[in-house]
Amino acid sequence: METKLTLKLDQSVIQSVKKYAETNNRSLSKLVEDYFKNLISENEPRRHFSPLVEELSGVISEKDLKNLDYVSYLEQKYE
Questions:
Q1: What span, in angstroms and rounded, lies between the C-alpha atoms of 56 and 49?
Q2: Fewer CB under 10 Å: which end of the chain, C or N?
Q3: Is residue 2 situated within a structural domain?
Q4: Is 4 inside any structural domain?
Q5: Domain of 62?
């Protein structure tokens, strides 16, 4: 069941978070709900990843990580 919630926030914060929500194709309500869920969640670790990290998640397979030559290559490339 969805219920309306009224919040009082600084106008500059509201403007910034609206831009963030739009950039990330999410509603402001969804951002707030997800934030609150994260706060009260006891079973899940509290992880805050940027949208870029979320997008790149899973790009490298576990098989590649087991290949030490590939891991060494990446470490040298991004030093």
A1: 11
A2: N
A3: no
A4: no
A5: 11-77
